[in-house]
Amino acid sequence: MKENEKDLAMQCGCEHEHPETVREVREAMPDENVTADLSDFFKVFGDSSRMRILFALDRRELCVCDLSAALSMTKSAVSHQLRFLRTNHLVASRRSGKNIFYRLADDHVRDIIEIAVEHLSEEE
Questions:
Q1: pTM of model > 0.85
Q2: Exposed, middle or buried, 91 (CB in 10 Å: 0-12/13-18/19+)?
Q3: For a 10 Å CB count at each end of the chain, is N or C smaller?
Q4: In this structure, which topology does domain 46-121 adopt according to CATH?
């Protein structure tokens, strides 16, 4: 945003609040606990290594060794990030013999990623 656009955005031009509008917005706002949880949820996406893992798992189910090779990361680093992603319910796993395969937890995770990429790809 250009400097003069920032100045305009800070100025409403009116000299009083619009009580009905303010009430409507306040009633629609989620509880502060919900907004705090949302903030924490979106922080999970704030790491490029985790995003790369999520993109890889969006393509197909993978084990730590394959993720490590595909992303040129150490197994330890991949495991650490997978643990974080599992704790935050973005990644699920299944065991097959001695191997553990990881995948996106559900279609919601895929949707969030796809919508974000679409948003970032839009031209201004």
A1: no
A2: buried
A3: C
A4: Arc Repressor Mutant, subunit A (1.10.10)
